[in-house]
Design brief:
The protein is of the alpha+beta class. 52% of the residues lie in helices and 8% in strands.
Length: 231
């Protein structure tokens, strides 16, 4: 398998969507079969010849798959042995709904918290492309966004309240074991961890402890990635 993910300085690979699949590959006991290849923001020719313009992308024995949820589904059905990523086919539909609801809301808020930090860890030759595209998306300069970044942390925390309630009686969102729905949210936290020193959660927060458990999964695979102390 070949896994294409966003490049970064010092191997601080941070794409939230790539991290969902890295965790899914660990979950399926496939991570040791994967070759990871970084892709630049400003040059995606390594995947564009197959019709893709963004990562993550997985190539498996000549089959190319893009979009994190579609890759997860591919792994589930192509490698059906337990452990399952979803539980059953009905849960795939529910997970897809969670994915659709969570992505635009959390992405927009968290981007306003950490976009300036992300700018600092991307490769130098990607900075012009990143600055132009992200300022257009966020309708402001990166410098101005950073000035107001911490105002969005309470908003981010509030948006996560439904997940806190679930964790009141569970270690993970589906019970005693993690599944792909955990990796959806965890990917966003890895985006922050590997780029930013800002503290997003309080240490008495149920999500802080959930994130700690997630970092420890698979012999600390995520914790051993090149980032900052958990925030």
């Amino acid at each position: 398998m070949i896994f294409y993910e966003l490049d970064a300085k010092n191997k601080q690979y941070f794409s939230p969507y790539s991290w969902r699949i890295l965790m899914a590959l660990n979950h399926k006991n496939l991570i040791n079969k994967v070759k990871r290849i970084p892709v630049k923001f400003s040059d995606k020719s390594i995947i564009s010849h197959q019709g893709f313009n963004k990562v993550p992308v997985l190539e498996d024995n000549g089959t190319w798959i893009g979009e994190s949820l579609e890759i997860a589904k591919y792994l589930e059905f192509s490698y059906p042995d337990d452990p399952t990523l979803f539980g059953n086919k009905e849960n795939i539909h529910l997970t897809s709904l969670i994915n659709l609801m969570l992505d635009p809301k959390i992405l927009g808020i968290l981007a306003r918290i950490i976009v300036a930090d992300v700018y600092e860890v991307i490769q130098p030759d990607d900075k012009i492309y990143f600055k132009e595209t992200r300022e257009k998306l966020l309708n402001n300069t990166i410098e101005e966004i950073e000035k107001n970044s911490k105002k969005f942390i309470p908003i981010f925390q509030k948006e996560l309240n439904p997940f806190r309630k679930i964790l009141g009686t569970n270690n993970y969102f589906t019970g005693s074991k993690p599944m792909y729905c955990d990796y959806i949210l965890f990917g966003f936290f890895m985006w922050a961890r590997n780029t930013s020193k800002k503290q997003l959660l309080e240490k008495n927060d149920a999500l802080w402890h959930w994130r700690d458990r997630m970092l420890n999964l698979y012999d600390g695979f995520a914790r051993h990635s090149n980032g900052y102390d958990i925030k």
